[in-house]
Amino acid sequence: MTGPGVAGQETGAYGAIPRKEDARFVRGQGTFVDDISLPGMLHGAILRSPLAHARIISVDASAALAHPKVEAVLTGADLAGRGLAWMPTLSADVQAVLATDKVRFQGQEVAFVVAQDRYAARDALELIAVEYEPLPPLIDARTALAQDAPLVRDDVPGRADNRVFDWNAGDKTATDAVFATAEVRVGCDMVYPRSHPAPLETCGIVAASDAVTGRLTVWSTSQAPHAHRTLYSVITGLPEHKIRIVSPDIGGGFGSKVPVYPGYLCAIVASMITGRPVKWVEDRSENLMSTAFARDYHMHGEIAATADGRILGVRARVLADHGAFNATAQPAKYPAGFFHIFTGSYDLQAAFCEVTGVYTNKAPGGVAYSCSFRVTEAVYLVERLVDLLARELGMDPAQLRMRNLLRPEQFPYTCPTGWQYDSGDYPRAFALALDLAGYQGLRREQAERRARGEYMGIGISFFTEGVGAGPRAHMDILGLGMADGADLRVHPTGKVVLAISVQTQGQGHETTFAQLVAHELGLTPDDVEVVHGDTDRTPFGLGTYGSRSTPVSGAAAVLAARKVRDRARLVAAATLELSPDDLEWLDGKWRVRGDPDRGAGIAEIAMAAHSSLELPDGVEGHLDASAVYNPPNLTFPFGAYICVTDVDPATGEVTVRRFIAVDDCGVRINPMIVEGQVHRGLADGIGMALMQAIAFDENGNCLGGSFMDYLLPTALECPSPELGATVTPSPHHPVGAKGIGESATVGSPPAVVNSVVDALAPFGVRHADMPLTPANVWRAIQGRPVRPDLAVS
Amino acid sequence: MKVTLTVNGTEYARDVEPRLLLIHLLRDELGLTGSHWGCDTSNCGACVVWLDDTPVKSCTVLAVMADGHRVLTVEGLANGASLDPVQQGFAHCHGLQCGFCTPGMMLTARWLLNNNPHPSSYQVREAISGQVCRCTGYENIVKAVLWAAEYEAGG
């Protein structure tokens, strides 16, 4: 860790302490959904469509039902009889639970078998006879709005085309005026290909319905257990107080475990029908082919500038492939997520973007994979454009960025599309990154290598994210405002239990949240037990995604702790027979002003609160407190990334030699965990930029349906990252923290692509779409780039 | 088919379907859920255990192939209450986040250090390159293994 603002931050309970979670994980004692086994539990498996688009003529499950180990089979018709064949998505659309009329993507759910063991359930899938009438599939999003395009969503009365939405942000007139008079304009088509978060644990559920009590208990891979509870209640009609959702240990989520999937509902219905617990865990192909893909943005971006390198404006036209159902998980008001933060980190006069979403015969999803609600696509677009502009102007891309970065005195800064960036010192972070990289030396080395016929690239990305959704006045999912709660119980001995509405999928909440509360109450993190992931035991909130845990739920925990502290002051004053005004909070205790040796810590005060002490007004008998945090704004972390690559022109192979990452996420509660988050995101960026993409052939066959086809970076492709930090606190967050969970995933892909394109500059390569596989790099060198979203023949 | 195997020092005898995978025997029949299933195609290594003295991907080993053999899983890595240095290293160096790949990574790391007590960081990367972690970017896993090597060398 290098950089200004870091030293001296590790005070109180903050700091790089080991995680509480690790004790169970290193012993193999985590409890993931598939580890749960209940008496009498049955196993479910899903029959999926082999075709991308087809009418269902018939489904015959009689042979499967005759299998001696099969307990039940659900078809679309069975669910239709219960009014459950379709379910609402998180984006005001509906999605088929089990297909009744048509199948609309390869891998769509058609039937659900429930059997005595997981092997028998799989066997029985082969006994179900489905007759399909194939229909022409719509695969290329760019043809989705053509007159003769196949209609994907003929289930919606009156729908005549494949348009999901048209949406725009910014000022078109002002932007067009800037572009009309600008001395330099540069544009480029670029595709952010469809990818998949591919957490190592796939999605799964154990559903246990109790007919006597009317209770439904669900253990599931959910990043948003409270939202799921409400959704299940709405869908099934079960009273919400009879539903309990438990998210146990989750093996990575990255946004893919936010939606409710058909398999979950099938398992719930199957448990109701059989009266027994039902487990369903998808396999890897099902995961890659049917649950939450990410990206799939076809973008045309333009940037306008003066001849001496002053950036004036950006504009973008985007075609968004949403697949067969609009099931994106994002604040309802923003159909393209937060894409309109594509103004980036620069001081612009005007910006305008328009996004058209279309249906295709592909899996639904779109907002996942640590994308901060499409900030990933936005940052990629603007950072590629800035590099293209630098090339056009013949300017160094670092110099061009430094010239146009927002200046510290401009914060809070309202960007041309309306986001109010809370705080930032961009030049400081950028200068630190350039320094850590030894930027000028790298450019000299590059020139020397080029002279020798070697292709080395230096790629820069400077990003700004908006995370921590969000202000409930304009951010909700399904009408649920994006606020989060925290409950704090202070036991008589001063030990504390914190219950939070968000839960960890690896981010270390049990540690970070304990540090947050301990810091406020003068305790150690070991004094604080964090309860999460169980709707019966935690207050309502919208869950963990979009880097919102620390910005939103973390703030709620701090506010609850401060209420405890305030109440403790009254009790301490009563025990000392003083006025509360005579006390001040100092070094973790309430102490007498001017006599700091007299005072009491939370443990003593908690015992006093439970004792026979005559309690002062405002204290009912204990120190427990609750809080709900409705953030006034997003937080805006930022960072400067530099990626150094070497490209073999004969094979097209790219090696990432160095990755320098300076992140500013405000105050760091646990810098070790923060750095771990950055490490992950850098690997994501390398994966997306160089190898990961879900493509389709002309028949709609998914070409990324296993880890043999959908390539993930291993330890050999990931460099040892060089991290730096600056600390610019958020002015509105109670402890000045910002989100960090997605920063590196958002910021790193353009650094990698900029680096490869820079390496290929001697070949005249101006742009190449991800993934920059050896084949795609080689084609770019030959001047024959290809569409990354379609199969290459 | 009858299968008898020794897992973490304890002998188990079971009557299993010939097609049963070792990972499912361990998890579903023996209740050893520390080993995880992640991909079916031998790419991710969440299911890595030792068969006798070699790490294998237990999603592509039939349970009956383990008949008469020894299996080591994450549950057998610690010596009683005393954690293996590899386990200590993973916790000490933040070598895990969600914990799903961790058991397989640690078992490969243990094998590496048994065969190469002083690996370079590249050798650690090479050793775990048949396994996938989606959380750490591998950096802290490498550090964890090197930490364990140093610890065992008395450092």
What does this protein look like?
The complex is a heterodimer of chains A (793) and B (155). With 793 residues, chain A is α+β, with helices and mostly antiparallel strands. Among the domains of chain A are: 33-135 and 202-250 and 258-290, Aldehyde Oxidoreductase, domain 3; 483-629, Aldehyde Oxidoreductase, domain 4, CATH 3.30.365. Chain A is built from 18 helices and 34 strands. In chain A, a hairpin with a 5-residue loop joins strand 25 and strand 26 (496-500). By secondary structure, chain B is an alpha+beta fold. Chain B folds into two domains: 2-76, Beta-grasp domain (Ubiquitin-like (UB roll)); 85-152, [2Fe-2S]-binding domain (DNA polymerase, domain 1), CATH 1.10.150.120. The mean pLDDT of chain B is 97. At the A-B interface, helix 1 and helix 16 of A face helix 1, helix 2, helix 3, helix 4 and helix 5 of B.
Supply the key terms.
heterodimer, A: 793 residues, alpha+beta, Aldehyde Oxidoreductase, domain 4, 7-stranded mixed beta sheet, 5-stranded mixed beta sheet, disordered N terminus, B: 155 residues, Ubiquitin-like (UB roll), DNA polymerase, domain 1, 2 domains, 5 helices
